[in-house]
Amino acid sequence: MIRVATLNLLQNPLLIQERVSALVAELLPAKVDFLLLQEVLPPENGFDIVSHLAGALGLPHTAYDKCDDRISGTAVLSRHPFQALPVPDGWVGTRPIIAQSEVDGRRVVAISHHGEWGSRAVETRMSQLALLSDVAHDLFTRDGANLDRRTRPIIILGGDLNAEPGSGPLRFLRGEDACHGKSALWVDAGEHVGETGHTTGGPMELCVATATGKAGAPYRPERTPLRRIDYVLVYEWAYGQAGEPVAARRFATDTFPTSDGRAFTVSDHYGVVADLWSPEG
């Protein structure tokens, strides 16, 4: 079994050390193989989030990247050694981390991705996913079109895609729509096992704080709609194969008491953790 978790950690520095400690308490019993994070503040902000989580969760192999024009970046933390592969040419937006590893003799690729934000960014989100699908296709078919089930890689895409299940980006990932003349197929772990609850929005305090902090903040930020925009997906026809999702759930859904007397969730997003079947163990 391979266990993968993804979470948008919220780039607001508000009580970040307490929020990270709450995340450790939540994930430590889960013993994840890969943790895919988005909106991770850099260590120069005064707290090295990635190093702290790596040590606390037993995930010693890490990669972090942040664009110069962004407040925060993306990270992969892993129980297994990995090689960070290059970002595809033509990439626009927050760079993903593509971590190629080997687990029990099988190639496993875990991608942490934060889809471009904004109501006018659908085309960018689609293009990003098309490029990542090209990467997955090239990795998947490295050994030829007719892959032996014993060597077939498991390729995982996790993150905040900033896209709901019925949107164009998710239709593309499900193989229902094409992008730039190309198509793909990814299996949504949550949908596959029936865990389709929202991952952000509503009246939780960090969602309200995030909405209030934006230019043109709404009069009633607690009215932010409930949305499912965070996913763990597995590339290609995973049914009955290595990598098929067999369990998925949201995490970091409960509040914890903060030092200033409030009740916070870890982030303004809930995380998603998925178990992927592996015949090797």
In short:
This protein is of the alpha+beta class. The chain has helices at residues 16-27, 49-57, 122-140, 168-173, 189-193, 205-212, and strands spanning 2-8, 34-40, 61-65, 73-78, 82-85, 97-103, 106-114, 154-160, 186-188, 230-235, 245-251, 256-257, 263-264, 271-276. It has one domain (2-276): Deoxyribonuclease I, Chain A.
Structure, explained:
- There is one protein chain.
- With 281 residues, the protein is an alpha+beta fold.
- It has a single domain, classed as Endonuclease/exonuclease/phosphatase (Deoxyribonuclease I, Chain A, 4-Layer Sandwich), CATH 3.60.10.
- It is built from 6 helices and 14 strands.
- The strands form 3 sheets. The chain has a 6-stranded mixed beta sheet with strand order 3-4-2-1-14-11. Strands 5-6-7-8-10-9 form a 6-stranded mixed beta sheet.
- β1, α1 and β2 form a beta-alpha-beta unit.
- The longest helix has 19 residues.
Whole-number mean pLDDT = 93
The geometry reads as globular
Helix content: 10-25%
- Report the order of strands and helices: EHEHEEEEEHEHEHHEEEEE
What count of domains describes the coordinates?
A: 1
* CATH class placement: Alpha Beta
Q: Class by helix and strand content? A: alpha+beta
Enumerate how many helices there are, as a single number.
Answer: 6
DSSP, total strands: 14
Q: What is the secondary structure topology, with strand pairs?
A:
Blueprint (H helix, E strand, L loop, with lengths): L1 E7 L7 H12 L6 E7 L8 H9 L3 E5 L7 E6 L3 E4 L11 E7 L2 E9 L7 H19 L13 E7 L7 H6 L12 E3 H5 L11 H8 L17 E6 L9 E7 L4 E2 L5 E2 L6 E6 L5
Parallel strand pairs: 1-2, 7-8
Antiparallel strand pairs: 1-14, 2-4, 3-4, 5-6, 6-7, 8-10, 9-10, 11-14, 12-13
Helix pairs in contact: 1-2
